[in-house]
Design goal:
Blueprint: E1 2-7, H1 15-25, E2 30-36, H2 41-51, E3 57-61, H3 67-74, E4 82-87, E5 90-92, H4 97-103, E6 109-119, E7 128-132, E8 135-142, E9 145-152, E10 167-168, E11 176-180, H5 181-184, H6 196-207, E12 210-222, H7 230-239, H8 242-256, E13 259-260, H9 264-281, H10 286-303, H11 313-316, E14 318-319
Parallel strand pairs: 1-2, 1-4, 2-3, 6-12, 9-13
Antiparallel strand pairs: 4-11, 5-12, 6-7, 6-11, 8-9, 8-14, 10-12
């Protein structure tokens, strides 16, 4: 009934625990595809050993590439009604699948978001807090130009403070998301490293399909808290290069005739994570790494000022979709 596709997002490490939890918490039957996007030989061999006892799993070697390109390469191989896209630094939790399947029974529902929680890492806060419950596409006009803004409800809230009901959402995130397979095979998979979830959300809206969030299914992702190896950082820098981010922004602009408010903040976001990862690679504790990252960001911003003409852009924005 379900195919689970595990793909690198930010790193290579984490995939073994991701696979173990899939087999621990997912009821049979399901099919597992592990996408090898340049895993180091030692990690690849460990994956193969871990999957040896299971006849429902395969490793697909695609070489070094971004997750969206990899998904476009493998989606025709999916032969189940539903597919779960799962980043390899995400961890499913007990009972995650039945609540998603219950929601996606409605044929008008194309995508179901689990509640996505994040472990403390690149910024400080509670050890476990909300990364995504629902998110909304909003728009704002600045100097006669219309921009989009992404707004996440309950961002960084404690999980126990969240509403418990299923709610509509404009889009999703790829830490973990359940798709109806026939919809995934119909949409265009954009060749992007940013904004891809927003692009697909707009496509689904154009098709008249729903995106829902199901808080009774929980996925937890590692917000860069675990120290990366050199091979992890190689993949991170490949995916999140400034050049790829810039081309992704231009591709979104070409496809939709719109761009995002304060695009410069995205490049600062990438810079901050690079500094943080280097600090952690040097075994600096997370609080110290965050302080150094903050200081480096202020220096970066001095030479690369971010154009943010509005003090409260989200507060002044309005919903983009009807």
């Amino acid at each position: 009934m379900v195919t689970i596709i595990i793909s690198p997002r930010d790193r290579y490490s984490g995939v073994l625990e991701c696979i173990r939890l899939v087999y621990k918490y997912t009821p049979e039957p399901f099919t597992l595809m592990v996408l090898d996007l340049g895993y180091p030989t030692q990690v690849r061999e460990k994956i193969e050993r871990l999957l040896t006892p299971h006849d429902n799993a395969s490793i697909i070697n695609l070489g070094l590439m971004t997750p969206m390109r990899a998904l476009a390469r493998v989606r025709d191989r999916i032969d189940t009604q539903f597919v779960m896209l799962l980043d390899n630094d995400s961890q499913i939790t007990e009972g995650w699948l039945p609540p998603l399947l219950e929601v996606v029974k409605d044929e008008n529902v194309a995508v179901v978001n689990p509640l996505t929680l994040e472990k403390e890492g690149v910024d400080q806060g509670a050890m476990l807090r909300t990364h995504l419950y629902t998110n909304e596409i909003r728009s704002i006009e600045v100097a006669g130009v219309q921009y989009l803004i992404e707004s996440k409800s309950f961002r960084r809230s404690l999980p126990e403070t969240l509403p418990k009901e299923i709610r509509a959402s404009d889009m999703f995130e790829l830490h973990g998301v359940l798709f109806r397979t026939n919809i995934l095979k119909t949409i265009e998979i954009p060749d992007m490293v940013i904004r891809e979830h927003i692009d697909i959300g707009l496509q689904l809206h154009r098709m008249g399909k729903k995106v829902l969030s199901q808080p009774n299914s929980v996925v937890i992702f590692d917000n860069l808290g675990t120290r990366m190896t050199l091979s992890d950082m190689r993949y991170f820098f490949h995916r999140w290069s400034k050049k790829r981010c810039w081309h992704s922004a231009r591709e979104f602009e070409r496809r939709w005739g719109l761009n995002f408010y304060s695009e410069d903040a995205m490049y600062l976001w990438v810079f901050r994570r690079r500094v943080f990862l280097i600090c952690r690679w040097l075994y600096l504790p997370i609080p110290i790494a965050n302080k150094i990252t903050g200081a480096a960001a202020r220096i970066y911003n001095w030479f690369n000022p971010i154009y943010e003409p509005l003090e409260d852009p989200i507060g002044q924005s309005e919903r983009f979709l009807p």
